[in-house]
Amino acid sequence: MERLPKKNMRKEIGTAEKQYSRVQRPLLMALCLALALLLPPGCTGQEALPYPVKGEQNGGACLPNNDLLHVFQMQAPLPREKDSQIGEYVRRVYQDSKGHHWFATNKYGVARYDGEALQYFSVDEGLGGPVVTSIVESRNGHIWLATNGGISRYDGRAWLNFDKADGLPHSWAWSVFEDSRGNIWAGTEQGLARWEGNGFTAVAAPGMEGRTVWSIAEGPDGSLWFGTQDAGLFRYDGAEYARFTKSDGLPDEGVTSLSFDKEGRLWLGTMFGGLSAFDGQHFTNYAEQADFGGKEVWATLAGRDGEVWFGVEGQGLFRFDGKHYIQYGPEHGLEVRAVQTIFEDQQGRLWVGGGGGLYQLAGHQFFHVSKEGPWDGC
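The structure corresponding to this sequence follows.
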C-alpha cells in the first residue's frame, strides 16, 4: 500500500480559497447567482479528484464547470428548507426485500419510500421512539428498528415494541442485526441481547455486559462481531467471546461501525482512532498513514467493487481504493460533514446520510434527496 505522509496528504486534500477584493467579490457573487438561476441542473460525469483542484469540480447544484460558479457555491450556498429534508439528521439507510428504502432519522422516526410515496412512522404510528439508529429485515419479512424506546418490529400492518420489561438490558437500543442462522441480536445502552421468540434475553458476554453496543456484523465464517462504545471489539464464534482492545492493536476502544469486504477483511470506524482494518491477525490503522483532518469515523462501507467508503466528522466522505484517497464535499454536491450512514442498495446506488440530510451519488456527483426526491439521478 502506498504510504502517504501526513503533511503531503493535507496539502493534497485542502488548498486555500482564491482571494478576491471587497469590490470584486459582490460583483462575482451577483453574476454567479444569475447564472445559477438560469442554467438547468445536470450532472457532468467528471471524475472526482482528490481535494482540491479549485475550479475543476462542480458545486452542489450539478452546474457546468466554471470558476465563478465554484466561488458562488463555496461562498454563498443556497439555503435549503429544513422542512423539505427527509430529516435534518439521517442516521441509517436500508433497503428491504421488496426494494423499499427506509431512512432512519434522529427526530422523526423512520421514513419509507416504496417507489411511489414517502411515509413516516414515529411514536404516533406506534414506534417505540423517535430516534432510530439501526434497521434490519428478518427472513420472515419483518422490519426491526433500534430506537431510543427499545426495539420496534413491523409486520406490515402494525408496530410491536420491546424494551427493558421485555428482556432488553436497557430501553435505549443502538443496533439490531439478524445473523445467517436467523437469530436477532440487539445492542443497547447497557449490553447485548438476543431474541428468543417472545422476548429478549440479555447475553452474558464477559467485558461487554453493561456496555453500549454500537455496531454488529457477521464475518464470512459466520462469526459475529460487536463494536462497543468504550470496551473495544468482540468476536463470537458460536461458543465463546474474544475481546480486542488497544493492547491488541485496535486504534481506539470506541468502535462505531463495522463492514466486511469481499476478501474477508473487517473495516472499522472508531470514535477517536480513525479508520482501521483487521485481517484476522493484525490491525492496520490508517490514521497513522494519512491525516484526514480528524479521527472520528461513524460510518464505513466496504463496497462491492472493493473500494472502501468512510466518513470523518467535520470532513465529509472519503473513498479508498487501496492506494489513494478521494475526498467528497460541497464541491461534489455533498453538504454532509457529519456522515452517519453509507449504504449501497440493490441497484448499486450509493446513499449517504448524516447532519444535513440525505444524498445519493450519480456518476461522480452527489445530489440532495428531499421529501419530493429525486430518487434516482439528479
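The CA atoms of residues 235 and 241 lie 6 Å apart.
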